[in-house]
Amino acid sequence: MKSLKIASILLLSIISLSTFSAVSATSNTVFEEKQINVNVNDNFQIELPDISGSSGYCWIAQYDLQFVSLTNEKVISTVKDPFFIGGNVKQYTFTAKKPGQTKIIMTESRPWSNEMPAKVITYLINIK
Questions:
Q1: Higher pLDDT among residues 103 and 6, named by residue
Q2: Whole-number Å distance between alpha carbons of 81 and 112
Q3: Number of domains in the chain
Q4: How far apart are CA 21 and CA 64, in angstroms?
């Protein structure tokens, strides 16, 4: 079941990225690049704003299963006031599997929509 979920996420990411590459450069998509250095068998986290409210946006992770595995996803509340909506963080925990260099691409989009992603963050992962 977990591998089916990962395969579905990867397929949606590929569809989103291929749609994205066909659109002109005048989009409002925000691009970021970050670097993470880890050792084999280390766990590491990527934390992003939780955008799973009524807007329909979600984060989609695309990564190479030969180098990393997604071991946990959770929402962390950062708000002390129970009447305040928002302010949560989505934490993705990955495990480095073998030495080398790979990328994790996090896309903020509405997977069912033809619109451009709101944000694409590429994490360059260096595994020793």
A1: 103
A2: 33
A3: 1
A4: 20
